[in-house]
UniProtKB/TrEMBL annotation:
The keyword Membrane applies. Coiled coil: none annotated. Residues 663-762 form the HTH araC/xylS-type domain. InterPro entries: Homeodomain-like_sf, HTH_AraC, HTH_AraC-typ_CS, Tscrpt_reg_AraC-type_HTH. GO terms for molecular function: DNA-binding transcription factor activity; sequence-specific DNA binding. The chain crosses the membrane at residues 21-40, 298-320. The keyword Secreted does not apply. This is AraC family transcriptional regulator. Keywords: DNA-binding, Membrane, Transcription, Transcription regulation, Transmembrane, Transmembrane helix.
């Protein structure tokens, strides 16, 4: 036995593992039970509060409706009093204080006080004579009236709390802690001839609110200005100072309850009288008792104990028992026991220790399963032209154990199928191509077969560096013959194309794109397809204008997706990967094609000039000297900043053209271009902006004003109608929104250089 390992095992003999395990499990269970108790306590309290929120909200609504009903009844009583003939006569034709007619007024006022329980006293103020008549048969002038301040205050300031019903307005006022209902009649305010002051019995109003008062809740009533309605009966000191002033703000925010300092505040405002009720509820009264929390927690405690016991047994079996065996084994060896038994124990323990090393093999297994996915994504990005540096490509190729390298030239074979070919046959054709390549590739090339989607396969073929053109051509001919012989009569559903040769795997996307173009021409042939096919000595990637047009499509697509960084990387990648080992004149011509393709793309977005200094050089008619035009290095140095500026300008203009107003305006033009009344003012109204701002957006984004943009769109629609229909020019002019045939012809010639008739004749003759 290894002596170091023996020393470690002897240390285990002195450790009371069972005691430590028991202590840890007890502590773990205790912490878990404490957490569960806190959670249960919180959930129980939250449930109580949620249920009581609904109860107290309903209580508050019932209380406010009760008050509204009471005040509405008193309002009706005041209305009836103002309709009484003696009351009306007393204010219209006032009598002296000692007049016998006043007895009829006293009788009416006293009668209503006797009939209505909530009325304590009623005063009638006659404005013309400043006389006061009360329901208690008092008569005096205003100067000697005991509650003169009430009358003066009523006329001095407009009441904030009013009740409007049936076209009659009654104000609710607080005076010396009492509630008064006041009515000017027959008109309100200073136009009234008399005023009735009804002094309410506070006990009647308080009784309506008493039901909501408990040992842990308090209901308080306020007028519209949040002045206490019953200062002598309700304990308004329960509300913290300054809280009442905050309630109007809460109401504006749509809140009807606020929690503060262990209390819930419910508030409600009457839509009829403007009276505010505030209900205070002490949340501490809803805190669950320890007994309730314990009862709710018992099932969880039992579950925790069971799980802790099971966990203890598992840990005991997995850790404590092997240590016990180690102790016995060490004791047996120290005492000179049977070596065979000790060897068996060590075999068992060795297997346990070796489990650690198995993790490495598990990790290797996981990585081996990930490699196909990594490989597929890498080849997909490579074929679609994602910019990658040579060291990065080499690193990935090494890690995925690819047969390809970064040095030798490549071609791409693309395989697709017509729609009627079944999926199972597509896989068979791909397998057939793979087998043919495996049989014929020795000593000629290395390859990787990649499935792009359900109907497209791509094969990256990398030839040996010293392989001649004739051998490559023979290999391609043999490959096509073998493949189509294997597909026999089914070849009509299979399409195969071989792309041009590119200098390295870094540029394999060039061959892939050209191969797809050839597949498309084969799958969807045009009338002049034969004219486009050009015979060359060697089928290599041609850096002509068509090639750079294809690259600009992918760069533009990245910009439209908002990925300007990737678009710039791709543009610079193309600039740096153009070969410099060929004819300098052809290389410089390729850079010029690249520049023209960029300018053509900018022009398609109506970008033909720029006032900004950093972009102005893009549109220079003589961008470089004659000496530079013959030097590939000089041309590359020019094209790097050119590509950077062009991509940034295109991205900037494209983003501007995606302004929400422009999108809406373009949609409106597309839907209403046939309307001759379509104007910038109409579009501005549709976009909810100004005509000047919308006009500026058109000019900045498209380089032309609104009228030119609209006319261009109409002319394009007119061209379609001229070529696809036999309608007369007058009808086409009307259909595309022109108000006259003469105006249509004038605008058409301005934009195309020819008249509509000449345009149609030239196109028909060309076809």
């Amino acid at each position: 036995m290894n002596h170091n390992l023996k020393d470690i095992l002897r240390k285990f003999r002195n450790k009371k593992l069972l005691t430590q395990l028991f202590t840890v499990m007890v502590a773990f269970s205790g912490i878990l039970m404490t957490v569960v108790s806190m959670v249960v306590n919180h959930q129980t309290t939250a449930t109580f509060l949620k249920n009581n929120n609904l109860i107290y909200t309903n209580t508050l609504e019932v209380s406010i409706k009760t008050l509204d009903t009471l005040f509405s009844g008193f309002h009706n009583s005041l209305t009836h009093i103002t309709y009484d003939a003696s009351i009306v006569d007393s204010v219209v034709t006032p009598k002296p204080l000692n007049s016998v007619a006043n007895y009829q007024v006293w009788s009416v006022l006293n009668g209503y006080c006797q009939e209505t329980e909530g009325m304590e006293e009623i005063y009638l103020y006659i404005r013309e004579t400043s006389q006061i008549l009360t329901s208690t048969y008092e008569k005096c002038s205003l100067d000697f009236f005991r509650e003169r301040d009430l009358v003066d205050r009523h006329f001095a300031s407009r009441p904030s709390t009013v009740l409007l019903k049936s076209g009659r307005t009654t104000s609710i006022e607080i005076y010396k802690g009492r509630v008064y209902m006041v009515r000017d009649f027959p008109l309100n305010g200073k136009k009234g001839l008399g005023t009735l002051f009804m002094k309410m019995k506070s006990s009647v109003l308080y009784d309506a609110l008493e039901a909501a008062q408990t040992s842990y809740s308090h209901l308080l009533a306020y007028d519209n200005d949040f002045n206490p309605l019953f200062p002598g009966m309700l304990d308004y000191e329960k509300v913290p100072e300054g809280f009442i002033e905050m309630i109007p703000g809460y109401i504006k925010e749509g809140k009807n309850t606020v929690y503060s300092e262990n209390q819930h505040y419910y508030f409600c405002q009457s839509n009829q009288t403007g009276i505010n009720l505030v209900l205070l509820v002490d949340d501490m009264a809803f805190m669950p008792s320890s007994r309730m929390v314990l009862m709710n927690s018992l099932p969880y405690f039992a579950l925790i104990l069971i799980l802790s016991t099971l966990l203890s047994v598992c840990v005991l079996y997995l850790s404590y028992m092997p240590v016990q065996k180690l102790k016995k084994m060490v004791s047996s060896e120290d005492s000179g026991g049977n070596s065979a038994d000790g060897k068996n124990e060590w075999d068992y323990l060795t297997e346990s220790f070796l489990k650690i090393s198995n993790h490495k093999y598990q990790l290797d297994y996981i990585l081996s399963n990930m490699i196909p996915k990594i490989s597929k994504e890498f080849y997909f990005d490579l074929l679609n032209g994602k910019p990658m540096d040579i060291p990065y490509i080499q690193n990935i190729l090494t890690n995925i154990s690819s047969p390809l390298n970064t040095e030798n030239p490549c071609k791409v074979i693309t395989l697709t199928f017509r729609d009627f070919v079944e999926p199972i046959l597509r896989h068979q054709f791909a397998d057939s191509l793979n087998q043919i390549l495996r049989r014929n590739s020795d000593g000629i090339c290395r390859y990787v077969l990649q499935q792009i989607d359900d109907s497209l396969y791509a094969v990256i073929i990398q030839f040996d560096a010293d392989l001649g053109y004739s051998k490559i051509t023979d290999f391609e001919i043999k490959l096509e013959q073998s493949f189509f012989q294997s597909t026999d009569d089914r070849r009509n559903g299979v399409l195969l194309e071989i792309g041009p040769k590119c200098s390295s795997i870094q540029n394999v996307s060039f061959s892939y794109q050209e191969s797809l173009e050839r597949l498309a021409r084969q799958k969807y042939p045009s009338q002049n397809a034969e004219e486009k096919s050009v015979s060359t000595e060697e089928d290599s990637v041609k850096f002509n204008y068509h090639f750079f047009q294809l690259q600009m499509k992918s760069i533009s697509a990245l910009i439209m997706k908002g990925d300007t960084d990737s678009a710039l990387k791709k543009a610079l990648h193309i600039c740096h990967t153009l070969p410099h080992d060929g004819n300098p004149e052809e290389i410089c011509r390729a850079y010029e094609y690249y520049r023209l393709a960029f300018l053509n793309t900018l022009a398609s977005y109506r970008i033909t000039d720029s006032d900004e200094k950093e972009y102005a050089f893009l549109f220079d008619p003589e961008p470089y000297s004659d000496k530079c035009a013959g030097s590939p290095i000089c041309m590359q140095e020019f094209m790097v900043p050119f590509c950077t500026a062009a991509v940034n300008l295109l991205s900037e203009k494209y983003l501007k053209q995606q302004h929400k107003y422009l999108i809406r305006a373009k949609r409106c033009i597309e839907e209403n271009y046939a309307d001759p009344n379509l104007s910038l003012n109409l579009l501005a109204d549709q976009c909810k902006t100004t005509t000047s701002y919308l006009s500026r957006l058109f000019k900045e984004s498209f380089g032309i004003n609104f009228v030119d943009y609209l006319n261009q769109y109409r002319i394009e629609k007119a061209k379609e109608l001229l070529l696809s229909t036999g309608k007369p020019i007058k009808e086409i002019a009307s259909t595309t929104g022109f108000n006259s045939q003469q105006n249509f012809i004038r605008v058409f010639k301005k934009h195309t250089g020819t008249t509509p008739g000449q345009f149609k004749s030239e196109k028909v003759h060309t076809n």
